[in-house]
Amino acid sequence: MPYGDGMSARTTRSEERRAEIVRAALEVIAERGYRGASLAAVAERVGLTQQGLLHHFPTKDALLVTVLKERDQWDAMPHNQWRIDLLCSLVEYNAMRPGIIQTFSALLGESVTEGHPARSYFTDRYRQVRADITAALRTEYGDRLPNGLTPERTAPLLVAVMDGLQYQWLLDPESVDMPGAFRDFLRLLGENVD
Which residues form a coiled coil (predicted)? Predict the structure, then answer.
């Protein structure tokens, strides 16, 4: 076997193991929250020692950042391609993956505390999401929505509704129709949704 083939196989195995660790970390964080999740619990779930896990992720914070970035890859939408109708699709998609939404929500809730390792991640993420939604609203409506609000004033409301609905749905999925309630909110903005 040529030297390069062995390196390629080891790299692939290492990448597969890292992906397995990230999936396990998502599960553990969803169950216990970030503060309650331990590297030992994640390692146990993937059949590694804690030392073996540290070979792939040197700190719990490094693992958390990877988990958050991985989650964002599933929802990736180029910054200049947001559209209001796609937000409905995103809400419907989220309703099909409660574990991911639970992890995101748990981390978001914990990140508001001083010194939390995900605080700057979520601060930057929300800043970017508000900017993207503002741009999408401006493209759709111009400087004023049918209800009279500006895109800048509407974007934080839209994000708040999306995230607030996620929390309500996670707590009581039988009573909260997350996609339906989001479409209702868009109707309040003057959007024609079916």
Answer: none
The contacts of residue 56 (CB under 8 Å, 6+ apart) are: 14, 17, 18, 21
Contact 25, 42 (CB under 8 A): yes
Rounded CA separation 166/87 (Å): 13
Can you tell me the distance from the alpha carbon of 37 to that of 64, in angstroms, rounded to the nearest whole number? 10
For the chain, give the secondary structure using H, E and C: CCHHHHHHHHHHHHHHHHHHHHHHHHHHHHHHHHHHCCHHHHHHHCCCCHHHHHHHCCCHHHHHHHHHHHHHHHCCCCHHHCCHHHHHHHHHHHCCCHHHHHHHHHHHHHHCCCCCCCHHHHHHHHHHHHHHHHHHHHHHHCCCCCCCCCHHHHHHHHHHHHHHHHHHHHHCCCCCCHHHHHHHHHHHHCCCCC
Q: How confident is the model at residue 6 (pLDDT cuts 50, 70, 90)?
A: low
- Asked if the model's pLDDT at residue 120 lies above 70, the reply is yes
CA torsion angle 60 71 177 172 (round to 10): -10
d(CA 64, CA 55): 15
pTM of the model: 0.73
Contact in structure between 56 and 17 (CB atoms under 8 Å): yes
